[in-house]
């Protein structure tokens, strides 16, 4: 009868109630946690939407300019609930003023006034000459007063707003050659060029009759002295991406027009230093009346082209001295002079072991050998140039050119591709690159390469929730400040965008060669210095881990101001770094007319890496008022 006592029954009832209460409270905790996580993670706030709704409506954008605070999003961040003590811990913001309008087109390391102080021999004065620490600006480079969002790709290939790059010089100077025309409030690019009066498309078709441009074997190209990059622009529809470069010179804004059109380009020149690219990078190199003295300085410039060409790559030359018997009068040069120049180029090409593929009409094509087996043997005949010794062939940052042939990796047979063959495009983008396959990149295995591709696939899926649709043309020119293996560019390959993959100078390991082997383009860059580009040339900048690398090397304020210079109004920046670094960045960018939010990592709040998404608000400089006398 003891088991049925009222006291024992009361104890069981109390125990049951306590268990029910605990279960109920636990259930509510789980429910609210799930609801909270869903609420904060579902729209990883589309920060760009509130600023870019106006799109091409300049009047709406002006309203944003006058009151930037209205652009911020009202959706709370998941990050806040986990890191409340670490944010908003500064009481004042250092506001950066606009620079004077005279700096609207400022290119710090290619400043024409600073350049005049340097040696004119070999055009050294047009190379990179960056400001000293005392010369660095602490202001924001202003856009022109009537700046408009550039045309969307593919329309941008053919049109650009005059107010964005107010320079008519090329339309007058190159009028006969059909480079560029002014039509009302815009420029039109007919696709003409000095050596392709029928247009770049027809010119490329002519090249395609000589070498295969459409079977995927040629993917990366370099255009030396590119003009407005029409050659590169029309190669894109053939799935060939070209690195176009030209100096900042009397032909004002050549590369600027290229980038405004949505075509890859950099300010650059062949002078005394190597190009900022690794060895064996490009499948094809091109010069169309580029005015580079290929036959001078013991053939040093052709030797540099040889360094950056892939084994089996092509060099295409049109313009002087090719077909001099027909054009010599128009070029205002003597037949003897032109013949001598062509003979000298042919001689350098032979010494480099290049094979003359064809010369037809205005085009001449040479091909680099697949390996150096025969070339090494030929040094008995050609004493110069010799094969370089103990040199890093990929070194391309402030490295002097040399008059010696960059050696190719060793092979076991004469038909083997030195360094390894690459797949045809588009399989090339995700195939194991030869540098990884051969184990020449320390610490990077084929398995890690595959993991990196999957990682970036997930990240880009996440970014699509943050940014405007990648398919709508909102973004075209993208820069990855710390590109590593090029995974970001590969994940974006299916979208109408292109990526300038930057590998910080002196990185260990140096992965830029891997990026080129994948069929993408990029450059070396020290982020303590300015980039070789014009202001307002990129729509989206990705900065993964960059500031952890550089925060002890130089003042990150100057890196952020440089990012602001090259970012278009209403452009987006994605930072990935530790909380501490991102809070420092946000504190500075709050004074740069940027709107930003810190978010948790895709994997959740417990990952120490966080994401900061920032948008540069629309604002412009003021028109200079004429002073009354």
Summarize the structure.
The chain has 629 residues and is an alpha/beta fold. The protein has helices at residues 6-41, 47-52, 58-66, 78-82, 112-115, 169-173, 200-208, 230-235, 254-260, 300-308, 324-327, 335-351, 373-377, 434-437, 446-466, 487-491, 512-517, 546-550, 556-566, 579-589, and strands at residues 159-161, 181-183, 186-188, 220-224, 241-246, 265-267, 282-288, 309-318, 355-360, 363-367, 386-387, 404-405, 477-480, 498-504, 522-525, 538-544, 567-578, 594-599, 609-616.
Question: Can you offer a commentary on this structure?
Answer:
The longest helix has 36 residues, at 6-41. It is globular, with a radius of gyration of 28 Å. It has helices spanning 6-41, 47-52, 58-66, 78-82, 112-115, 169-173, 200-208, 230-235, 254-260, 300-308, 324-327, 335-351, 373-377, 434-437, 446-466, 487-491, 512-517, 546-550, 556-566, 579-589; strands at 159-161, 181-183, 186-188, 220-224, 241-246, 265-267, 282-288, 309-318, 355-360, 363-367, 386-387, 404-405, 477-480, 498-504, 522-525, 538-544, 567-578, 594-599, 609-616. It has 629 residues and is α/β, with parallel strands linked by helices. Among the domains are: 197-379, Rossmann fold, CATH 3.40.50.150; 427-616, 3-Layer(aba) Sandwich (Rossmann fold), CATH 3.40.50.
């Amino acid at each position: 009868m003891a088991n049925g006592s009222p006291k024992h029954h009361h104890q069981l009832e109390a125990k049951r109630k306590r268990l029910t209460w605990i279960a109920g409270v636990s259930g509510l905790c789980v429910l609210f946690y799930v609801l909270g996580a869903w609420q904060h993670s579902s729209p990883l706030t589309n920060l760009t939407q509130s600023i870019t709704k106006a799109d091409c409506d300049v009047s709406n954008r002006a309203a944003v300019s006058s009151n930037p605070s209205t652009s911020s999003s009202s959706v709370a961040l998941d990050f806040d609930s986990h890191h409340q003590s670490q944010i908003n811990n500064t009481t004042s913001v250092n506001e950066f003023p606009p620079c004077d309008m005279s700096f609207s087109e400022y290119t710090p390391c290619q400043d024409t006034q600073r350049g005049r102080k340097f040696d004119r021999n070999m055009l050294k004065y047009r190379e990179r000459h960056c400001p000293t620490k005392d010369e660095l600006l602490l202001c924001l480079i202003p856009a022109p007063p009537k700046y408009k969002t550039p045309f969307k790709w593919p329309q941008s290939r053919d049109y650009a707003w005059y107010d964005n790059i107010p320079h008519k010089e090329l339309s007058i100077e190159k009028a006969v050659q059909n480079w560029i025309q002014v039509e009302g409030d815009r420029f039109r690019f007919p696709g003409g060029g000095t050596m392709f009066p029928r247009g770049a498309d027809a010119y490329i078709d002519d090249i395609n009759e000589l070498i295969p441009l459409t079977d995927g074997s040629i993917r990366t190209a370099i255009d030396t002295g590119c003009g407005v990059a029409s050659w590169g622009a029309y190669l894109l529809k053939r799935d060939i991406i070209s690195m176009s470069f030209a100096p900042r010179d009397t032909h004002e804004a050549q590369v600027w027009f290229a980038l405004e059109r949505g075509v890859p380009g950099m300010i650059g020149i062949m002078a005394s230093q190597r190009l900022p690219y690794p060895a064996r990078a490009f499948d094809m190199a091109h010069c169309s009346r580029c005015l580079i003295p290929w036959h001078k300085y013991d053939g040093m410039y052709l030797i540099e082209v040889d360094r950056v060409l892939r084994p089996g790559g092509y060099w295409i030359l049109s313009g002087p001295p090719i077909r001099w018997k027909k054009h010599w009068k128009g070029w205002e040069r003597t037949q003897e002079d032109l013949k001598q120049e062509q003979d000298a180029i042919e001689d350098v090409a032979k010494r480099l072991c290049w094979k003359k593929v064809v010369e037809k009409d205005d085009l001449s094509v040479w091909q680099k050998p697949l390996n150096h087996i025969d070339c090494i043997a030929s040094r008995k005949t050609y004493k110069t140039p010799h094969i370089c010794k103990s040199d890093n062939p990929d070194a391309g940052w402030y490295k002097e050119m040399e008059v010696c042939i960059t050696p190719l990796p060793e092979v076991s047979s004469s038909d083997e591709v030195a360094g390894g063959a690459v797949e045809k495009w588009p399989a090339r983008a995700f195939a194991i690159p030869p540098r990884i396959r051969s184990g020449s990149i320390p610490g990077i295995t084929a398995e890690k390469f595959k993991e990196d591709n999957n990682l970036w696939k997930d990240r880009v899926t996440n970014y699509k929730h943050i940014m405007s649709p990648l398919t709508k043309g909102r973004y075209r020119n993208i820069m990855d400040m710390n590109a590593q293996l090029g995974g970001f560019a590969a994940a974006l390959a299916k979208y109408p965008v292109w990526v300038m993959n930057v590998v910080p100078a002196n990185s260990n390991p140096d992965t830029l060669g891997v990026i080129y082997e994948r069929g993408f383009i990029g450059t070396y860059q020290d982020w303590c210095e300015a980039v070789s580009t014009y202001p307002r040339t990129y729509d989206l900048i990705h900065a993964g881990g960059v500031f952890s690398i550089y925060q002890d090397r130089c003042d990150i304020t100057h890196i952020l101001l440089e990012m602001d210079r090259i970012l278009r109004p209403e452009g987006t920046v994605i930072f990935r770094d530790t909380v501490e670094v991102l809070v420092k960045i946000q504190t500075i960018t709050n004074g740069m007319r940027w709107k930003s939010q810190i978010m948790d990592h895709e994997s959740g709040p417990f990952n120490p890496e966080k994401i900061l998404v920032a948008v540069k608000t629309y604002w412009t400089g003021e028109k200079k008022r004429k002073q009354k006398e």
